Amino acid sequence: MLEIPQSIWDLVLLSHLHLGGNNFESIPASIKQLPKLKCLGLNDCKRLKYLPELPCLEDKDEDVLYENEETYLDFHNCINLDKDVCEKVTEDVFEKHLLQHKIVKLCIVGNEVPQRMRYKNQSGSSLSFTEQLPNLIGFSFCAVCDPKNCSGDEMNEISCEAQLIDKSGRRSKDFRFHWVSPRVADDLLYSEHVFLWNHRFDMEDSIVKASFQFYIHMGSYGTTYHEDSAFETIIKCGVQPIFRDYGSNLTQLQNGDKPLGNLKILNLGGPFELTRVTDLSIFPNLVVLRLSECSGLIEIPSSIGELKCLKKVFLSHCEKLQSIPQSICNLKSLTDLEISYCLNVNELPENIGDLELLETLDISGSGIKPLPSSFNQLQNLGELTCGKCEGLTLPPLTGLSRVKRIVLGGTGILEIPQSLLFLVSLRYLDLGENNFESIPASIRQLFKFSYLFLNDCKRLKFLEDKDEDEDEHEQDTYLEFQNSINLDKDVCEKLKEYVFEMHLLKKKVVKLCIFGDEVPQRMRYKNQIGSSLSFTLDQPNLIGFSFCAVCDPTNFLGDDMADITCEAQFIDKSGHSNKKFRFDWVTVKDVNLLCSEHVFLWNDSFDMEDGPVAASFQFFVDRVFIKAKYRKDRDYSAIIKCGVHPMFGDDCVGRDNKKRSRSQEDEDDELSFQRLKQDEEPSHTLDKSDSE
User: Fold this and answer.
1) Which element (helix H / strand E) includes 154?
2) Which residue among 19, 171, 394, 581 is least packed, with the fewest CB closer than 10 Å?
3) Separation between Cα atoms, residue 642 and residue 619, nearest integer Å
4) Which of 197, 194, 239, 2 is nearest to 83 (CA)?
5) Could you read off the pLDDT of 498-541 as tens digits, one per residue?
């Protein structure tokens, strides 16, 4: 692949992106449109030279779903990646470690430990140091690996073993800190690589001495698995202790004797008793200011307006904060402003529109109700989050030409603001938990979105008709009407049929979650009392399927996270059974909060080298047990009905052709049914071995 498809940048919920082994030379800046990206794999992209700013390395506060959520960046064997780019990514990851709030792991071509890492060994795999380490909460680790020194067949694990001694002279137990197991054969690494990772932990006593040994566990092919600690493969190493920035008795940030001119990141976030910051002008080059969760903070000084380099300000969960100073509007470089859950902040500065570079604004859960009239001047705003701002009133938003994501869930709005429907870049719109009863005829404008959420709109009853000629765009679309329990039954059926029709047209991926308990009427194969089915295939050129699962939450056992999944097994004309294919609906975050049965409808396409003649499908819910280290387990009983509709390359129109009438589609289905009626009946029984 020489270029990355533009449609990828519209997948704003995408968390894992693997593009390894391709031939592009650069990654476009559009990757910033993926705010949820946690895992980026670009290994073996040997022509790759340049990287933009990566969204997973940006400094922003976010609701972290899992306490130990991790970010992985894999650039191994990107041998032409610009040296300055490699060094910058390495320093950015190291900076994230210092900010304490996130686990980030990096593999990249290079042979240098980050310059700012406090303790280094430039010619070996071990180091030790003596230093008073109060309030130690973790370490940042770096290992430089030379594959030429690797004697085993397979690298299983890059590790650092630590011995810590407290001030009483007592030795701690041995700590072992791992990089993710890369399982990269040594002959697939073409040169030295840097592995950089961090780890957090709690120490009861202050540490005064520490020693570290880096090594690689080796495995060998063709033998019973064993480990052989390899020290010589690690040619350089480094360790950086990470501390809490300030003690719990901190109440004020005082002026120093001289300006701290080189400080770029000030992180006072955490459960400290900070009540005020007296003067911020002592940090003239500050880029990131983090005061989140300073529950005692009362005010922000007006001197914040003097920080001309400041780009990111995070003030979430400052529960006693009374206001945002007007001087913040002088920050011409500001790109990110978060003041979520500042309950006593009731308004934004009147001149907020002067922040001409502002890209992200989060006021969710705050006391803010009216947005100032100047808000419409934020021409670079890309993301606006106002969820749970009860009583929010919006000015016309027609000037926000670049906004891609808007969250208005739980604001209590009674109507959809008409100006939203004409924001040309908008792709993600969350209107859930609101009180409107209907959506106007201009709803057809809403179907241009990649993600439309109308969850828990319990008064919603009607959706007006949309034009037949709409939906000419090709972006993937997610439509969620979870718990919209008063939505008219005929409306639900019409939406299901509309989405199913989009599947048959094969124009794009469309995923729907909606209140209901029936598989679409026209879906060719159904099981009305179970979670599995099978059938024979009588046509060549199979290119994909439409899937339907009806989920009953009363049968679901688990915590709140789950994947609605279909696993498929195909048999070709020679009788050979292919590997299993897995087709997922997007993760459902609140299965236990579904108030009744819901229909999940989605489609997927794929290429099969040999045309299969038979197929079997097992639907299930992948339960996530959060308290058991996110162990997954399959739940079959939660799926009470299911359906599958095969799609063939020669029985529907392609992307660039005009869509056929519904009667033509029905004729094709009837012909296919007549050809199939001699086949054996679909099996609705779950194989016992699968259930075990």
Assistant:
1) strand 154-166
2) 171
3) 7
4) 194
5) 889 888 887 678 889 888 899 998 999 999 999 999 999 877 78
